[in-house]
Amino acid sequence: MTAEAAAGDSSEGVLLDEPTTADLRAKVTEAWREFAGALAGVLAGLPSGAQVDLTLDPTASGTGSAVYSVSIRVLDAGVVEALAVGNAGLPPEFRMDRATVADMVALGWSPPGVLPGSGDSFGLRSEQAKATPLAAAISRTLRDVYGAPHPAFLVYLAHDAEDEPLEVGPLATARQEPGLDGIGLGDLDDEQALAEAMGASAADDLVPLEERVRTVIATMSKTTIDQLQVDADGDIGIRAGSAMVFVRVRDNPPLVDVFSPILTEVEPTEQLYVKLSELTNRMPIGRLYCAQDTVWASIPVFGRNFQPTHLMLAVQVMTGLADELDDRLHGEFGGKRFFGEGDKPASPKNEGEHRTGMYL
Questions:
Q1: Strands 122-127, 154-159: parallel, antiparallel or unpaired by DSSP?
Q2: Which residues contact 226 (CB under 8 A, 6 or more apart)?
Q3: Across 265-344, where does the E strand assignment appear?
Q4: Nearest to 348 by CA among 327, 334, 337, 338
Q5: pLDDT at 183
Q6: Residue span of the structural domain in which 327 resides
Q7: pLDDT per position as a tens digit, 175-200
Q8: What value, to the nearest 5°, has the Cα angle with vertex 228 and ends 230 and 47?
Q9: Does residue 342 or residue 130 have the better pLDDT?
Q10: pTM of the predicted protein model
Q11: Is residue 88 situated within a structural domain?
Q12: Per DSSP, what are the bridge partners of residue 163?
């Protein structure tokens, strides 16, 4: 949308309300808290012999050949045993130093080989009755020691004593099936499947807008409404590579805002504003802007006469756009990406070094 169009309609100022109140660090912290709580609930109810394997997806996290994993197994009498990868299972360049090993021990892990049967892995033994502190220790291991930036980078597999798949409740934003990278963009044009999933609700004004939006996102993600990841603000979170996309439903006026914090802790400069203006003019829909020290991308979808295909297009564009732009803008202006915990301000690169994006 152009500035002229926004100025011509007094309602647009409300429609494009800046989501600057979103506390990104708080969202990540809350995501880990939700993951730990969900993991505790699963562990408390597992039958004897069941096992849950948690792995930091190397294809999404950039850890290359290093595979960080934790395996949790329920033994007899409610005993729970967890094994975490040690240096013997890691490439030389990813092995832990003494300080990191000390951090593992401080979290309750025994060094490799100390717990009977642990072999080259760190070992931890607890009880199902103490599932909450156990889940907290495992979550901190994955986050603070193994460096998982967000639970969405975790994949998990549950199976019984006979290695048969075991259905367990969702572990927050962690993914049950390996190889999935957020939303299935290849299926976004399957309007027939969407229509069948939504039934007549899309045309029924009696169905709340929020419910219709969640139906669309769940259908696109090939999951259920109950398994969508909704934070304390009511925003639906969708991981898109190193970026995070949020879908927020607003009531007055009815609006669905698809937005993403492209970069945080970036220095607002005239060059940045010029770049964002240029990119906005080249976007098929939506806009980019800088508020305080955060670069946002936003695509509003009108809630009145809500059209599911309009939301599908907005999500499709935003998930591809955010993952592309956070890398490009970070390389030129520094700052931090949502899933770039180690990001530091970077020196500007030559324009010729930028790769051409799918949408720009």
A1: unpaired
A2: none
A3: 287-291, 294-302
A4: 334
A5: 39
A6: 209-333
A7: 775 433 333 444 444 445 555 555 44
A8: 110
A9: 130
A10: 0.54
A11: yes
A12: none
